[in-house]
Design a protein that fits this description.
With 539 residues, this protein is mostly beta strands. The protein folds into 3 domains: 94 residues, Immunoglobulin-like (Sandwich), CATH 2.60.40; 191 residues, Chondroitinase Ac, Chain A, domain 3 (Sandwich), CATH 2.60.220; 109 residues, no CATH class. The protein is built from 3 helices and 38 strands. An 8-stranded mixed β-sheet has the order 4-5-2-8-25-24-28-29. Strands 1, 33, 34, 36 and 37 form a 5-stranded mixed β-sheet that branches. It has a 5-stranded mixed beta barrel with strand order 15-16-22-19-20.
């Protein structure tokens, strides 16, 4: 039966390939039970370069056991910039009981990331865009330095190490004092003669600096506050530093005596407590972040000082290694919904919408892409900031701005947003059928999957077009005067067909009869596959 699905997808792409818009992959899920909930991460290098090879993907968290690849296994990979996941249909979320898990991405040349996911009932598909920092090629707004020295040096003198100003004007400096010993996670002294490190400074006033914020979002449900309570919150960062130390390639997690941290802060930072630009003497909160657990923890408060010819900074002692954030945490909530008012939506058409929250510092707080239709306009939201923020909703394919305004969020509230009517292309549909050789009736089992596309020649990333449900999709995102590339994922294999024109209504039957379709390539082998698949189901 899988072969029928495979042929269906290949034929669907080759025929409908003329029925898409710019940007995304086609993803098909073939398992004994088709997934009701699917999700994806769009992974991009923060500097716009090719992703490093051999990235390692790990799923963790309380509901990790319910998460599978499209092939129905646990071997997660990055496929042409995407990580695809489906939820075991026996463990779908229910009202009031969402699923929670984390996606960890690691590699030798990147700053490891840990992205939390919440899947709520009724939210059948979501896509999160994330940025990866290649420490050998950072973007503007992120500075990386790899200082090293002989451990023996600390026996007689202090050592100062810092990030550089090549790609960021903000600098983080660490003073390591004479006699300091380096400890592993168990608190044992590490022996060795060679000290190496990776220091990363992120400028929160830049787009890249915020995009690389730990956890992939300024909101989190895993923040331990000063009272030791785990809360939801929204970070308003003034400085972000990630630190990795090694002794003879063994990771350092602590010190025998405090190390002094000096973090330059964004000079235009608006102090949320005063509503004014930060100044000397203001207090900022210091939080640590551990990527392996995805947990933020309050450490202390620190006063803003002036140093290095008037640059503003915070300075404080640290005794363990992790990422450190200076700034403030404001409220957040995971029980709110977004009501979209869009009477112009065409019934039966799927609209991929980019939903983004911004704070007063013009920093992106939350960013995701969801499939919306005229019958699915009440959207359960992930953790979002409470209070007033800016909500921006765009069509993820065309970029058209549908809403841009101030909203106020209270926990449990429904945020209402009236979407601006957009010019829509004529409805383009595709219906797929499968007929086994020698039979007159078509097969009823047809694929359901996410479809992605891009304009031919654009070299852009593939973006979601919508969901193909049992071989059918209807969209107003495609222009019949243009040509498109399409892609689908069958099990672990991406399938792409390029440079296709489309017509208003597309229909085809996979089969060997007159006017039927056996795919764009290798039709002889495809016919053989069709015969084998039909034989396996007694047709």
């Amino acid at each position: 039966m899988k072969k029928i699905f495979y042929l269906s997808i290949m034929t669907f792409i080759s025929v409908f390939t003329a029925c898409k818009n710019p940007a995304d992959d086609i993803r098909i899920i073939i398992t004994p039970n088709v997934f009701n909930y699917t999700t994806a991460i769009k992974v991009d290098d923060a500097a716009g370069n090719a992703l490093p090879s051999n990235l390692v993907i790990e799923i963790a968290g309380p509901d990790a056991g319910a998460v599978y690849t499209p092939a129905g296994n646990k071997s997660f990979t990055v496929q042409d910039g995407y990580i695809y996941m489906g939820i075991d249909p026996h463990k779908d979320p229910t009202s009031g009981s969402p699923l929670e898990f984390n996606v960890k991405v690691s590699g030798d040349a990147i700053l490891n990331v840990n992205i939390p996911f919440t899947i709520t009932a009724g939210q059948g598909y979501q896509l999160k865009p994330i940025k990866i920092l290649n420490i050998n090629n950072p973007p503007s707004g992120a500075s990386v330095n790899k200082p090293s020295f002989s451990v023996a040096t600390l026996a007689t003198q202090d050592v100062t190490i810092s990030t550089n100003t090549t790609t960021s004007s903000l600098v983080s400096t660490m003073n390591i004092y004479t006699g300091t010993q380096f400890l592993n996670a168990a608190g044992q002294v590490l022996s060795g003669d060679r000290f190496t490190s990776v220091l990363v400074n992120l400028d929160p006033s830049t787009q890249a600096g915020i995009a690389l914020f730990p956890g992939g979002s300024l909101t989190s449900e895993a923040i331990v506050n000063a009272a030791g309570q785990t809360i939801s919150g929204t970070f308003v960062p003034a400085a972000i530093t990630d630190i990795e130390f090694y002794v003879n390639d063994l990771e350092v997690k602590g010190f025998s005596k405090d190390v002094m941290m000096i973090q330059d802060i964004n000079p235009s930072y608006i102090n949320p407590k005063t509503g004014a630009i930060v100044k000397v003497g203001d207090l900022l909160e210091i939080f640590s972040y551990e990527v392996t657990t995805g947990i933020f923890k309050f450490e202390r408060t620190a006063s803003v000082i002036s140093h290095n010819n008037g640059k503003l900074a915070v300075t404080y002692p640290i005794n363990h290694l992790t990422a450190y954030i200076a700034g403030y945490v404001e409220g957040a909530c995971s029980s709110s919904s977004l009501q979209l008012n869009a009477t112009w939506m065409t019934q039966g058409v799927s609209y991929p919408l980019n939903i983004k929250f911004m704070n007063a510092q013009n920093q992106v707080i939350q960013d995701q892409i969801l499939n919306v239709s005229s019958t699915n306009t009440l959207i359960p939201l992930p953790v979002v900031p409470t209070g007033t923020s800016t909500l921006i909703i765009t069509h993820s394919s065309t970029g058209a701005v549908l809403f841009n305004g101030s909203v106020t969020v209270n926990c449990g509230s429904v945020i209402s947003a009236t979407l601006t009517s957009v010019a829509q292309q004529p409805i383009v549909t595709m219906q797929l059928f499968v007929r086994c050789p020698g039979q007159t009736v078509t097969v009823s089992a047809l694929p359901t999957f996410q479809l992605y596309y891009r304009l031919t020649g654009s070299n852009a990333s593939f973006l979601p077009l919508g969901e193909v449900v049992k071989g059918y999709i209807s969209t107003t995102s495609l222009d019949v005067t243009k040509r498109y590339d399409f892609r689908g994922i069958w099990e672990s294999t991406p399938k792409t067909v390029g440079d296709k024109a489309i017509v208003a209504n597309n229909s085809t039957t996979v089969g060997d009869g007159v006017g039927e379709n056996l795919g764009q390539y290798d039709s002889v082998n495809n016919l053989d596959m069709l015969k084998q698949a039909c034989a396996s189901i007694g047709q």
